[in-house]
Amino acid sequence: MGGIWVFAENQENTLELLNKGQEIARDLHEKLVAFATSRTMAENYIAYGADQIYLLPPLTEKEAWGDYLYAIADEAVKLLPAVILIAGTMRGREMAARLAQKLNTGLCSGCINLSVNQSGQLEMQRLIYGGAAVQTVVCTGTPQMAAIPPRTFEPAPYQEGHPGQIGELFLTPQSSVKIQELKPVVSAEGNLAEARVVICAGRGIEKEEDMEMIRRLAQATDGQIGCTRPISEELHWLPEDLCIGLSGQQVKPDLYVGVGVSGQIQHTTGIRESKVVLAINRDENAPVFEVADFGVIGDLYEVIPKLTDELEKRK
């Protein structure tokens, strides 16, 4: 077949997919193919394990990502890849669904792990019932497709001298979507989904002006601020796009710090992929301590200033 294909909007997410892609390519005895939008990027992907690169031309200001969709779909129809992995960003999820429809195949969206079974099929896993269970699915069509959230896998290791080929794909714009104007969405609190450190404000914070204490801690840790639903939806102290949980964002930081967070399942579903969870709460029976790696039982109004002072001394 035409290999294991990986596609992502940026280099970081592509390297994550290349890591898992190499494992699948070995198991299925396929070559590993990636897509790049510059020759420098293409050469870098080869150095991190890709066997072949399809170089896509940069889009103009008026061209939409849908134009890439048509180019990749046309190539897939000709070459019949065994697997296509797409980074499950907001744009990536949309692109994966549309590509699966064009190729008349299945798609596992929100895939958190995948492996090759004895029959040579991918067994793909995703969370269901608000994170209370894991569902295993198999795609019976070809190519087998998965949309994988960013930071699900570690980046691929560098492979000095790894050989690879670079070919070009040309766009024949077919999308009826044309960009009229670009207005970037800017959050005053930063990009939560990509944060390595997340400081989460919970209902234990008594007044809106006390959020400054949380911002200071975030600055001391080079982190980003998130919150539970009452903070954003009921009190409106932070934008709703910073809400973490079942109906909000799923975060995967190296360190999550819950400040005054009770830890209901609707929230902890959104932090289950965090590498280290630190909970700070004066209620020793708070559910958050059941999922925490480290816990501080104490008044956050005493703990947070002391912790922040100590961190600022070390910067």
Can you tell me about this structure?
The chain is α/β, with parallel strands linked by helices. The protein has helices at 11-28, 39-47, 66-79, 90-103, 211-220, 229-234, 265-268, 288-291, 300-314; strands at residues 4-7, 32-36, 52-55, 83-87, 107-109, 111-116, 122-128, 133-138, 144-148, 165-168, 197-201, 224-227, 255-259, 276-281, 294-297. The mean pLDDT is 91. The chain has 2 domains: 4-168, Rossmann fold; 197-314, TPP-binding domain (Rossmann fold). The longest helix has 18 residues, at 11-28. The chain is built from 9 helices and 15 strands. β13 (255-259), α7 (265-268) and β14 (276-281) form a beta-alpha-beta unit.
Radius of gyration: 22 Å
Tell me, briefly, the overall form.
elongated
- Which parts are unreliable, with pLDDT below 50 for 5 consecutive residues or more? none
Distance between the termini: 53 Å
The CATH topology of the largest domain corresponds to: Rossmann fold
Count of extended strands: 15
Per CATH, which architecture of the largest domain? 3-Layer(aba) Sandwich
Strand content: 15-25%
State the share of residues found in helices, binned by percent: 25-40%
Tally of discrete structural domains: 2
The CATH superfamily title of the largest domain: HUPs
Helix-strand pattern: EHEHEHEHEEEEEEEHEHEHEHEH
CATH level 1 name of the largest domain: Alpha Beta
Structure annotation, total helices:
9
The whole-number mean of residue pLDDT values reads: 91
Q: Structural class per helix/strand content? A: alpha/beta
Strand order of the largest sheet: 5-9-4-1-2-3-10
**Main beta sheet strand tally, sense and closure:** 7 strands, parallel
